[in-house]
Amino acid sequence: MSTIDADSCKVDVMDTIESNNYNIYFQNSLSELASFVEKGGYSRFFILTDENTAKYCLPLLRERLGDPDNFDIIEVNAGEESKDIDFCIGVWKMLIDFGADRQSLLINLGGGVISDLGGFAASTFKRGIDFVHVPTTLLSQVDASVGGKTGIDINSIKNIIGTFTQPKAVFIEGEFLKTLPSRQILSGTAEMLKHGLICDAEYWNQLKQSDLTTPADWMVYRSVAIKNAVVLEDPNEKNIRKSLNFGHTIGHAVETYSLINDKDSLSHGEAIAIGMICEAYLSHKKSSLSAEELTEITQVLMNLYPRYNLKTADNTTLIDYMLKDKKNQNGKINCTLLSKIGQFNIDNICTEEELIEGLNYYANL
Length: 365
Ligand SMILES: NC(=O)c1ccc[n+]([C@@H]2O[C@H](COP(=O)([O-])OP(=O)(O)OC[C@H]3O[C@@H](n4cnc5c(N)ncnc54)[C@H](O)[C@@H]3O)[C@@H](O)[C@H]2O)c1
Ligand SMILES: O=C(O)C(=O)C[C@@H](O)[C@H](O)[C@H](O)COP(=O)(O)O
Ligand SMILES: [Zn+2]
Known about the structure:
alpha/beta, Dehydroquinate synthase-like, alpha domain, three-stranded mixed β-sheet, 17% strand
């Protein structure tokens, strides 16, 4: 059941994309940010960074904004550990200490951790101040900065607290990806492949034949266009936005498990790639995905992402994490599946036995 017109997402010119009352800029995006800052009528500016984006991305931002002195910087640790209530309290306290008022603007300069944390902190501070995203990872450019989901984790349960609050603008600058480690590039690629799998078989075919270590600009644009089309139709995930959650029921459980148990935990994209393989298996079992397409999806993802030893993970614990998923209905675990490559099928209740079968499919590859 796919209702997105994938053809409308094919474009030659990377024009500004209009979302829910805000723009997503691709061309001269940092100049657009400078003009937004100048004309927005804001009283104060705050830039949220992590330790890496402070080092690699903040200098360029400062330069393009004319090295302003009326900006305060709030820096958190790099990584998922910062998407947590203690760091959120830290951000709120800094805003209070710096004297932020309701006319302040928060500029989230970083990956998905920064846009989720910053978006959440801003959407709740003084009942909501404006924020914009300047995404600096591939994953945040193609996915996290678009669509207005903000949030934090509790005990590594993903995004369990959050809001739907749209940013005032998103500024996508390819230059930032030059310092991004290759592992993080591949993490973002997982969400791009997801966009193809759920809505756009042609895009999936193009991606699977491309060198995904350096995704082209048009691919970033195509992914944003697909995500934006879904979100515009269903901003609060009552219906087809659940398509964007393909791979996430099992993927989030595996991510949580890894965050708790592994020293070098899985990235979001790596976990979602595992989730997509398991959920592709369930799609074959429950939702008409052919055996050939299941094999194709499995091979493409297994070739791109390192194998994770799921055998050591406790299935009961993983099911327990899945029972906390936000899509669930009446205590039943609800997955988004594929009916074929390029077509999704939402609201599939899966039994614990089926989910374990999906996990075992991956574990036994
Ligand atoms: N809100 C949404 O719609 C949405 C969508 C997808 C994912 N997410 C969330 O996003 C998070 C993952 O985001 P992510 O993959 O961007 O992770 P991230 O924000 O942790 O960034 C990954 C790493 O790259 C570093 N980094 C960022 N930009 C850099 C740059 N330009 N150069 C060098 N290093 C840089 C960061 O410091 C970090 O170490 C997860 O928490 C996930 O749940 C949210
Ligand atoms: O924007 C969405 O909607 C998505 O589901 C995109 C996902 O890639 C993203 O990881 C999102 O944060 C998951 O949301 P959640 O509601 O499952 O926590
Ligand atoms: Zn995701």
